[in-house]
Each structure stands twice: as structure tokens, then as C-alpha cells.
Design brief:
68% helix, DNA-binding, Arc Repressor Mutant, subunit A, homodimer, 2 domains
DNA sequence: GATAATATTGTTCACTTGTCCAAATTTAGT
DNA sequence: ACTAAATTTGGACAAGTGAACAATATTATC
């Protein structure tokens, strides 16, 4: 419960081929991810991937028609792993809905401090700005990540209509993602993440449980002028 | 007040040289920024920058010793512009501290919907993961961006000690940055940004005004088990 | 252990990358 | 107009890029 680790890759077995081929396929993607995480997208050249995986350059072209296809498979494998993990997290038991929401927040924020997550997602966000495939796949991931958040909000605050719940879930999810650049792996506020977790839990619970239907729509703020 | 636009670049005039040289210098950085924003960091090649600015490749090497120096100057110019703008925002008049905090939140979230901001910052975050210079410069920027936030928190909740104020400011700032990938320029939730702004204002004000000293440190949560 | 499918190697190709430099052009002050 | 400094040009260079291919080695199955 305290430690929930998302596997690096979720690879759908290829049809046909030998066992060695499956190994090679996974090995290549694993090496590519290591390069991306340790040296950034600029290091993602076929030759560096080949060297990293102890293979010949030509062999990469056997597994992947093009470099673009390799990268797509890589992103897809990483993203699929997150999607699977999120589905598991949802079904984790918990007492009240509030407690389960707090657990979810903790799990996500702890994952953010992971080297892989801290390094991978900014690359993903940057790529999504210029690659429609990455854009779509990324939004698929976050859509699914918000499903459980959405349900918990519904349990805690049933009066809130569905569309407002969705926006609230987005706000909470986006808030947490924003911590990546500041309290992620080797980031200056990494040591303060436990306190950020407390703030996040407190703030999100308060927000979810006290937001009234329609409050989001009009600009009738509470304390505002 | 409604529209606060951060200039693209803040360039410190070079010493010596003709006026034409200064123009060329700025023109190159402007073209490089356009490429980065419109096509991503992969498009930042000297030849594309040269073409974009109607110059010869060799001329870029006259202005910048190396490609790395060009990119550093570019990032520095963009970041400096933000720093200058933040200093101006701080001194914007406002009634209560709450109202000024709400204004600040609105300004930042509106800037996030800008094409330049939505596209530039994810690139910056990704670069900061592997380039120490970018890492330092980025943290300088955010440190300064949080100064005004910090002061407002102190006004609203004077009982809160300085170190807890800092973490609270970080939480708020990071939360807003996280909206970039979801409600930024051409992002799926762009149209819902006004509602996200309402949620953010309400949530942040509530958080800042009700957080008690020491609450962050211990794990004595409010509604928790 | 022969055989066909699968995997790997080594090499070649055309192209792009950043850097460098000598020559030509433009600029500003005399 | 003359001049020296500043700017710009165009082309060269070695190194690296993704892609392609025939030749070789490995695997699983009979």
C-alpha cells in the first residue's frame, strides 16, 4: 500500500516469432526507455539504442519498420503500463471515499518522485505538443486516470452534476502533475513532497466535499469582490 | 487587467557593434523561438533557424559561438521576460490580499492558455531534466515567480511561519503549471479554463486562509482515519 | 539432423548535422 | 570618398543520421 510501483513497460506479445524475438523486442524498448529517461529525447537515435541493447543497428530495422514506429511502441508500452496500474489502484480497498481519495493522491504523488515518471512525462508533454499520435495517446491515458477520481468525487459529493465532477477531477489531476518539475526525482523540493502530500490531501478533500452545484459555472466567488 | 501579455523575449543589448547587429541578434532568437514553439526542439537546427531568419548558416556562428550558446541565450531571453513581467504584476494595485491573490491566479492561468507558454514550458521542463544550466535557470524563474505569492500568503495568514508559507506557495504555483498540458493552447480542456480558474481561486484562498501553523508538518489530517 | 522460419550481422546509401574559414559586403565615423 | 570595424556570404569539412540490403547465424519442428 505504501509502495506502489508502476512497471516500466506493458508489452503485448507479438504474434508468431520465436521466444528470442520477443526478448529482443522487449530489450530494445527497455534500452530506448533507459536512454530517454537518462539522456532525453535527443539521445534517442537508432545507433545509441542499438549500442545500449548490444545489438546491431540493422536489427532494429528488423523489429521496427522505422524509428517513428519504435518510439510509438515505446510510448505506448509505457502508457499502457500506467493504465493497467491505475485500474488496479481503483480496486484497492479503503474505508470511506475520503480515505480512498487520500490514498489515490498519495500513490500518484509518490509515483511522481520516481526517476522514470519525473523524466518520462515532461518528454511526453513536449512531444504531445507537436505529434498528434502522442497527443491522442496521452489524453487517453489521463482520461482513464481520472475515471477513479471521478467516481470518488461522486461518492463524496453526490449533489455535484457529472460535468462539474469531471472538471473537478481534472483540476485535481493537473495539480498533482504540476508537482513533477518541482518535487520530482532530484528536484529542489523533493524532500518536501511529504508536506506537499498533506497539503494536497487536505485541499482536495475540502474542495470536493464543499463545492456546491453550479458554483463553478457562474463567477459568484465566495470571498471575492 | 484582463489581458496581461508577457513579451516573447527580453534581450540585454550587446556591447559594441552596429544597430544591424543588434537587429540580427534579436531576429535570430525570435526565429528560434518560433521554431521551438511551432515545431518543437527537434526543429531547432542551425539550418532551420537560418532559413527561418533569412540568413546564412555561417552567420549564426558569427553571433553565437555554438548551437548550445544560441539555445542558452534563447532560453535566457524568454525566461528573463517572464521574470520582468512577474515583477510588474506584483505591483498591480488590488483591494484586499485575497483579491490580489485571485488576480495573480487569473493572470497566470490566462497566460498558460497562450500558445507560446503552452508550447515553451514543456520543452523547458524536459530540457531541465538533462541540462544543468536549464535546470538552474528554470528554478531561478520559479523562485522569483513565487515571491509575490509568498507575500500574499503572509498577508492573508500571518500566523503561518515562513517555511510553511514557501511550501504552500510552491503547491499553488505547481498546481497552476499542471494545467498547461490539459487546458493550455489547443488542449482538450481549453474551453473549461474559466471554470478551472474559479476552482483554483476558491481552493487556493480557502487553503491559504485556513491552514494552521504546524499542520503541514505532522500527519494529523483533518478528515482522515 | 534436415529444413524452413526467424533473427542477426555487416555494410552501403543518400542526407543532415554543427563547425569552421576566407572572401565579399555593409556600416558608421572621418 | 576613405577607412576600419562589423556583418554576411557561400562553401567546405568530418561526423552522425535513418534506411536499406544481401549474407550469415540461430531457432523450433519434423
Amino acid at each position: 500500500m505504501t509502495n506502489f510501483i508502476v512497471p516500466d513497460l506493458k508489452i503485448t506479445p507479438r504474434t508468431g516469432g520465436y521466444a528470442r524475438g520477443q526478448d529482443g523486442f522487449e530489450h530494445i524498448l527497455r534500452s530506448a526507455l533507459a536512454l530517454l529517461v537518462n539522456h532525453g529525447s535527443a539521445a534517442l537515435t537508432l545507433r545509441r539504442i542499438a549500442t545500449e541493447s548490444g545489438m546491431n543497428v540493422g536489427n532494429l530495422n528488423y523489429y521496427f519498420r522505422s524509428k517513428e514506429e519504435l518510439i510509438r511502441e515505446l510510448l505506448n508500452a509505457v502508457i499502457s503500463s500506467y493504465e493497467e496500474s491505475f485500474d488496479e489502484i481503483v480496486h484497492e480497498a479503503g474505508a470511506t471515499a475520503e480515505a480512498r481519495l487520500e490514498n489515490l493522491v498519495m500513490l500518484i504523488l509518490e509515483d511522481i518522485t520516481t526517476k522514470k515518471t519525473t523524466r518520462f512525462f515532461p518528454e511526453l508533454w513536449a512531444m504531445a505538443n507537436h505529434d498528434p499520435f502522442v497527443y491522442d495517446r496521452m489524453n487517453e491515458l489521463y482520461d482513464r486516470a481520472r475515471v477513479s477520481l471521478n467516481e470518488l468525487i461522486g461518492e463524496i459529493n453526490p449533489a455535484l452534476p457529472e460535468d462539474e465532477r469531471k472538471i473537478l477531477a481534472l483540476f485535481i489531476s493537473a495539480s498533482m502533475e504540476g508537482m513533477t518539475m518541482f518535487a520530482g526525482y532530484e528536484k529542489p523540493w523533493r524532500a518536501q513532497m511529504p508536506m506537499l502530500e498533506i497539503i494536497a490531501r487536505r485541499s482536495f478533500i475540502q474542495l470536493v466535499s464543499t463545492l456546491r452545484p453550479g458554483e463553478i459555472k457562474g463567477d459568484l466567488s465566495i470571498g471575492g469582490s
